[in-house]
């Protein structure tokens, strides 16, 4: 009967309408306190940098993100009067740690996302316990950060690789803060018994000017890219600039080999852990012939080093990542997040933690702005 069918249709229609109504209602209900509800930007995003890292603001006039990095619609500002309008407010940890800067907690507009930045390792980071429940996003060198910011990366090469600098030494190391208790100091001391190591940097009274660094380390076949502490994903400019950009083969000490392999081809570096002893490592370095040495540079045919050293680039990346940033996230225990993920390889007081079983995170998906390797 037609009337029966109409009734069914009517009922179905009502259910659909009610469902739609509830669905829409969901968007009008208030979000719980502290959960960011980012505005949908019409005219672009405003990123407020509450204090400039290390206190030297860069030139932000003009559309720096578009002109320098091709990121459109991204206004970087240090003008604190824009707190109410800002889409994201950025806080660099060093100045919070030292007390030079304070969080404007009392003036925070409801639901405004705050982003915490550090590029230091947990061994040199303090005062996180009081920063719980404040930040929605983090930017660090860790791949599981909301905004992943490595010190460098390999990118497809646009022009032929420059020839390698001529070598007149075997191994070099630049070190500013030498502490006998660090694992890198112990490895260096043992290595130096077997092969000559040219030592530069403040620790040895031979500082290199910024412009001289790469041209100096490039004259040696190998560079000791030893991190000051061993932490999850903690790989710094010691690898990217001092070794790879300079044209020296990095001998790395830091996270496990598998971590480096997420960033570099496996044959682009030598890992201290590849050897049973430092003596074996020394023998490997001093005994290497030219043809074997050349194999460490195969990546240069198709890849080039790109350093991420300008804070403006790092801040512009917030805009390019913005559409993909998780909504509703709060780092309730920032300390636990930052100190976690190290597993047993985290450095305890007095040197290296015991190796073995160090937890590896899943790799970030390829693609995206800074993340593909
Ligand atoms: C800052 O950048 C703008 C635009 O690129 C330029 O015109 C200006 O001279 C720069 N100012 C300083 C102090 O370097
Ligand atoms: C900061 O922003 C306010 C509000 O837009 C503006 O009146 C002021 O001139 C700005 N200050 C600077 C130093 O740009
Ligand atoms: C160079 O060293 C490699 C690895 O030890 C060896 O296989 C190769 O024969 C050597 N080449 C020359 C030319 O000595």
Q: How would you briefly describe this protein structure?
A:
By secondary structure, the protein is an alpha/beta fold.
Structural class: alpha/beta
**Total E-strand runs:** 13
Neighbour order of strands in the largest sheet: 2-1-3-4-5-6
CATH architecture of the largest domain: 3-Layer(aba) Sandwich
Query: Given this structure, which CATH class of the largest domain is correct?
Result: Alpha Beta
Which molecules are bound besides the chains? Answer: 2-acetamido-2-deoxy-beta-D-glucopyranose
Give me the number of helical elements: 11
| Terminal CA distance | 65 Å
Stretches where pLDDT falls below 50 for ≥5 residues?
Answer: 11-34, 344-373
CATH superfamily label of the largest domain: Glycosyl transferase family 10, C-terminal domain
Assess the beta-strand content as a share of residues: 15-25%
Radius of gyration based on Cα positions: 25 Å
H/E element string?
Answer: HEHEEHEEEEEHEHEHEHEHHEHH
Mean pLDDT figure: 85
Report the sheet with the most strands, covering strand number, pairing sense and barrel closure.
6 strands, parallel
What is the CATH third-level topology name of the largest domain? Answer: Rossmann fold
Helix content: 25-40%
Shape: globular
